Amino acid sequence: QVEKDPKDYAAWLVLGNLQRTADNADAARDSFARAAALEPGRADPHLLLAALLRDKREFADAFAAYDRGIALLKDRDLKQEALRAAAEAAIEAKEAARAEAYFEKLAQTEPHNLFLRMQAASALARLEEPALALDKWLQIEAKAGGQLQHLVIIWKEVAELQGQLGRYADAEATWRKGLEKLPTSHYERRTFIEGLVSIHRRQDRLRELITEFEPKAERDVELTLTLARLHEELAEDDKALAYYREAQKRRPTDEEPRAAALRILERIGKPEEILAAWAELVRAFPREPRHELKLAELYFQNKEWAPLQPVILHAMDVVDRE
Q1: How far apart, in whole angstroms, are the C-alpha atoms of residue 314 and residue 288?
Q2: Phi-psi region of 291 (alpha: psi -120 to 50; beta: other; left: phi over 0)
Q3: How many other C-beta atoms can be found within 10 angstroms of the C-beta atom of residue 22?
Q4: N or C: which end of the chain has fewer CB within 10 A?
Q5: Which residues in the chain show pLDDT less than 70?
Q6: Which helix (H) or strand (E) holds 54?
Q7: How high is the pLDDT of residue 222?
Q8: What angle do CA 227, 233, 236 make, to 5 degrees?
Q9: What is the pLDDT of residue 274?
Q10: Is 126:91 a contact under the CB 8 Å cutoff?
Q11: CA 119 – CA 84 distance, rounded (Å)
Q12: Number of C-beta neighbours around residue 163 at 10 A
């Protein structure tokens, strides 16, 4: 087609892409150059060339091509797409300053879009620039106002970076700030509790946290579960088991505390206690054949034949129906 009509811009672009796919890099460059010469005001030849050069890890020329193409774009969505690609190329090249500059230009396309700034901060963390990333996240926090859906993301990132940088007091304060603001039913609350635990763990301060959480656990089942996990981590199985059982009472439809209590019982409990706990688990979750099969195994080991057959038949019936 280009031999027939050397001025066919679209044909040169298609040919360039085909040459790129065939790994004919030099021919692809020539095709994109011909397309750019035919339509000097079009961005596509430059951006396609930039992608080719990025694949070849010729980053200096790739950035020059990205810059030429981006300068020609008027459509906001297309400009954002190109700036994002250029920033990702800068990340691959491990050029933090260049990546930051591209992301800043991306943010300027929608100054009030916090998500674009979040992308930039996340990218800096990927570049192993935690201090720079933290600074960006703190700037974003200042712009977020009282929008909790944004602040939850921001606080998580800030606290994790502060911990990574060894700023444990700041990280603890950030995790606590989130816990103060989040309602007890919020889906991310456990993440913030676990973040607070992780900071205390790094400083060998888990006992302090247990002392803090104990008076609050009576009205907060998530803290009850946290206390159970902390006692289990500290090899205090009796206390852990008591907290898991308390959580089980308050969350009868939650399998986690029951399974955790069973895990401890299988370490320290008597055979009849273990068997009773498995039977209770099966009653609570009758549509879980894996639990029934485990219970059947225990009945078999304990030579309790009478309840064995009904359990197996029910498990098979559930499997057949599902």
Answers
A1: 10
A2: alpha
A3: 10
A4: C
A5: 289, 292-293, 295-296, 298-322
A6: helix 44-55
A7: 94
A8: 75
A9: 77
A10: yes
A11: 9
A12: 20
- What's the pLDDT tens digit per position in 230-245? 999 999 999 999 999 9
Q: Specify the length of the chain in residues.
A: 322
Structure-token pair, residue 57? 């890890």
Q: Dihedral of the CA atoms 223, 255, 247, 195 (nearest 10)? A: -10
In order of 46, 62, 76, 103, the CA distances from 106 in angstroms are: 18, 18, 10, 5
Exposure of 191 by Cβ count < 10 A (0-12 exposed, 13-18 middle, 19+ buried)? Answer: middle
Please enumerate in sequence order all residues whose Cβ is within 8 A of that of 243, keeping only pairs 6 or more positions apart, or say none: 217, 224, 225, 227, 228, 231
How far, in Å, CA of 36 to CA of 43, rounded?
8
Q: Phi, psi (5° rounding) for residue 280?
A: -65, -40
Cβ density class 30-65: b for 16+ within 10 Å, e for less: ebbebbbebbeebbbbbbbbbbbbbeeeebeebbeb
Take residue 52 and report the two structure tokens written for it: 């080719």
CA distances from 315 to 200, 256, 287, 299, 312 (A): 44, 21, 8, 14, 5
Q: Which structure tokens are listed for 155?
A: 């606080």
